[in-house]
Design goal:
By secondary structure, the protein is mainly alpha-helical. The chain has a domain of 30 residues. Helix 1 crosses helix 2.
């Protein structure tokens, strides 16, 4: 018997699918190293609460 996903689980699943698509596109255009580095950097920005700071994009 399959259990239905909660609204929160469905939302998270959509984000994982979107991340996977972006990652695939980055790999296709710029390779695995770029994609992995960009995703790690994004995770770091999330952990450090630095998202949305325009200054980060200049460096």
């Amino acid at each position: 018997m399959t259990q239905a996903l909660t609204t929160e689980e469905q939302s998270k699943d959509r984000f994982f699918q979107a991340l996977a698509k972006v990652a695939e596109e980055m790999v296709e255009e710029h390779g695995k190293d770029f994609a992995a580095g960009a995703l790690v950097l994004a995770a770091r920005w999330v952990a450090e609460n630095r998202l949305g700071q325009a200054e980060d994009l200049k460096h």
